[in-house]
Structures are given as C-alpha cells and as structure tokens.
Specification:
8-stranded mixed β-sheet; 6-stranded antiparallel β-sheet; alpha+beta; 18 strands
C-alpha cells in the first residue's frame, strides 16, 4: 500500500510541474507587455523629446594657423611654396558655475501606457576668469604658426535640441547676445551657441566676466549634466516623488517627500580632471569629457510589470501550499481527492496572475490585485465546498489563501525588503507544514485507511445478508 501513497505523491508533483507551464507563459506575457511599454516610450520620445543631457557652457576660441612648406615642382623645374592652413580651437572652462533646474513632471499616454515627461526651467549662471582668457589669447598669438582669430562663441550641448522651447538670450557682462541653434562642437552639434565679439574677451582688468541665461527645456524621464567648470553647483527640484540619482556623482544633499524632491550637487575640477579632458576635446577626442555626467531619473518605484513579475515568482509557492493543504486534508479527513481536482485548483491559482496583469493595465494595481484575488478565492471556496465535502473546511482553506494573497501583496509592493520578506514567508510556511504534520504516521496511514474501508465493506455485506 505504500506504493499507492508514493504514486499519489508522484502524481501530485507531476501536476505541480505541469502547472509551471502556464506560469511560464504568463511570465512571457509580462515580458511582452514590458516590451510594448518600451516601444511606447520610444514613440513618446520621437514625438515629444527623449532623455536630456546638458553640457555646461564652454568658451570656444577658434583660430587659424598657417604653415609654409617649400617643395620642388618638376613640371616648372622650380621651387614653390605650399601654404597649409588649419582651423583650431582653444576651449576655456568657466569658474563658479551654478545651474538651477526646476522640473515640472507630468504623464504622457501612448495607448494604455503612461510615460513621465517634464518641462524644465533651467537657469545657468557663472563667470570666466579674465586673466585665464588673456593668457590663452597671448599664448595663441605668440605661437609661430598663428594667423588670425575667428569669432569666439559660448557653446552648450543639449542632447535633444527639439526640447529647447524658447530662444535664450545670453547676458555676457553687460551685453545681451542671442543664442543661435547648434553647439558648433565636433563631438555633438546639438545644442546652442552665442557669438561673442573678440573685443569682449580683451579686457585688461584681472577680474571675471559674468554670464547668465535661462532656457526652457523639455525632456522625458531623465536629465543629465556634464560639468565643465572649475567648480560646478547644480540644483534640481521637481514635483515627482520618486527620483533615482544616476551618473558619476551623487548629490551632496537631497530632500524627498510625497510632493517632490530637491537635490544639490557640488563637483570640482579635481574630481572630474576636466582640464585634461578639455584639452583632449580641443584636439577632437571628447569621449572622456562627455563620459563624466550625473543627473536624476524620474522613475516609478515599483511598476505594475515589476510587481506582477514578482508575484508570478511566488506562484510555485502558492500552488505547492495548496497541494500540501489538499494532501493533508485528504489524509486527515480521509477524503479521496482526484488528480483532476488538484489540477483545477492549480489552474485557478495560476489564472490569478493573468487577471492581475490584464486588470492592472487599466486600473490601479492595488484595485486590480484585490479584484483578481477576490475572484479566485470565491471560485475556490465554491468549488472546495464539494471537494472537501463541507463549508467549514472550504472556508478555512479560502481564508488561508486570502492571508497568503495579503502577505504576497506586501512583499511585491516593498522595494528594499522584498527578498527578505519572501524568504521569511517561505521559512514560516515550511515550519507550519512541519508542525501540522509532525504526528502523522506516514508508514501506517494507508494501511489504516484500507483496514477502515474493509471494515465498512464487511459491515455492508453483513447488512445485505441479514
């Protein structure tokens, strides 16, 4: 008879393993919906703007060099002079740069998917050291191959220039100079620049030249800054309550609450080695310069797909607990439960996850979770009334399942403690199963059940004979 018990356990394991197939199919469906969300973000980025990366202003001084090379011309049998002209630039970084960005974040919809976008008011202020500018100009003029200067300009790179909503005006010292489209930088032409008169750089005092401008910038999800200054201070405020700070530097201080966040960065040239990187960029290699960035990403702390994916991972535990409870009921209550009944209960638990993901795309996740779990619990309660041959046992089983659904919701909603809580749930579940089955004699359980059935059969024959 032990073979019969072993066969029943094997059948239950096989059914549980087969029920992993619909769980895997639901996981694939979640992944597919995630890909649709990525497509929706790409579509919004095409029609709105993408994530923005802003390089702080750089003073660009273009100049022309001329070299003369004598060579022999065989056709004319004479020596001639070849003039080689090159266009070069000198990049000068700002001092004491300050950027204040205020992001007004809202949602844009693509079908049933929503993507956070923002309108940012960016105020840029700083100054250039007059002595450093004068020394750079003199160094260029004293070179042997110097020919002449071209018009200098202030340049700033904006990764997606479609997001610039206004026509910024540069306040350079006491002058107002309009910006023109394009950064005129070799590494990235997106952005804006303001042409400066060369006379504006040739001041003879040893002070500084202040500058400032305001820019309305539109973007999606993320805004990054590339600091190109001896000392940079960046402040970002937003009405979005779920920021993720990204990049090479974290904010020195931040405040986050339900109404939004505020974060401040302080970055020096010692931390970025911006001087060396700026010289490399002047020679045409700006990869190192643009690789140093920091910023913030507007995120959803736990998206519906992350929560649904977490819940599916606990599907094995739910099905396993249900089968263990069924098996214990079958043993203790002497109720024969068929393999098909195990399968139907397993499918009713698996269908919960499909209901959850489909409902959560249209209503709040908490409401979708409540509706899906309520439907599955009611269905199981109705079915188990007949399987367990009583309302009381069905109610106990449904109540335990409701408690598990409640605990699962807390787990999948947690960000930092999801793994810890899941591990504790698994441990507590195993402990409870071991406690409730500690007195079961697994060797005699089948034999006693068979003896009992034989006695009932003998008694029934005796009644028929009488």
């Amino acid at each position: 008879m032990q073979k019969k018990l072993s066969l029943k356990i094997i059948v239950i394991f096989v059914i549980g393993a087969l029920l992993m197939i619909p769980l895997l199919m639901i996981s694939e469906k979640i992944y597919e919906r995630k890909s649709y969300l990525r497509d929706a973000k790409y579509s919004v980025a095409q029609n709105w703007t993408g994530a923005q990366q802003l390089m702080t202003p750089i003073l660009v001084v273009p100049y022309v060099t001329e070299q003369q090379t004598q060579y022999y011309d065989g056709l004319s049998e004479s020596y001639k002079v070849k003039i080689n002209r090159q266009n070069k630039i000198r990049l000068i970084l700002a001092q004491n740069l300050n950027i204040a960005a205020n992001l007004d974040t809202s949602m844009r919809y693509k079908g049933i998917y929503q993507v956070p976008v923002y309108n940012a008011q960016v105020v840029v202020q700083g100054e250039f050291d007059q002595q450093a500018i004068q020394e750079s100009l003199e160094e260029i003029e004293n070179s042997t191959d110097f020919k002449h200067f071209s018009a200098p300009y202030l340049s700033s790179i904006v990764s997606d220039a479609r997001g610039i909503n206004n026509a910024p005006q540069l306040k350079w010292n006491d002058q107002n100079i309009p910006f023109a489209p394009g950064s005129l930088m070799q590494t990235d032409s997106n952005g804006l620049h303001a042409i400066l008169p060369i006379s504006a750089l040739r001041q003879h005092d040893k002070g500084s030249i202040p500058f400032a401008y305001k820019m309305n910038l539109r973007g999606m999800e993320r805004i990054n800054f590339i600091p190109v200054a001896t000392q940079s201070e960046v402040s970002v405020t937003s009405n979005w309550a779920h920021p993720e700070f990204i990049g090479n530097f974290l904010p020195v201080d931040r405040q986050i609450n339900d109404e939004g966040y505020q974060a401040n960065w302080q970055v020096s040239s010692f931390a970025t080695n911006v001087g060396t990187k700026l010289n490399q960029c002047a020679l045409g290699d700006c990869k190192a310069l643009t690789a140093t960035s920091f910023g913030v990403k507007q995120i959803e702390p736990v998206s519906i797909y992350v929560q649904a994916d977490r819940s599916v991972k606990y599907g094995v535990l739910f099905i396993g607990l249900s089968f263990i409870a069924f098996f214990i009921f079958e043993i203790t209550k002497k109720l024969p439960i068929h393999a098909i009944q195990y399968t139907l209960v397993g499918f009713s638990i698996a269908i919960f996850y499909l209901l959850l993901i489909s409902l959560s795309e249209h209503i709040a996740f908490a409401a979708a979770y409540m509706i899906a779990s309520f439907c599955c619990i009611c269905l199981l309660f109705y079915y188990l009334r007949y399987v367990l041959q009583g309302v009381k046992d069905a109610f106990i089983f449904a109540s335990l399942l409701a408690v598990l659904y409640g605990v699962l919701y807390v787990i999948i909603s947690a960000e930092d403690f999801a793994l810890l809580m899941g591990a504790l749930l698994t441990f507590i579940t195993l402990a409870l199963v071991m406690v409730f089955t500690r007195n079961i004699d697994w060797y005699n359980i089948v034999d006693s059940d068979v003896d009992k059935r034989k006695k009932h059969k003998t008694a029934a024959i005796s009644v028929d004979q009488n």
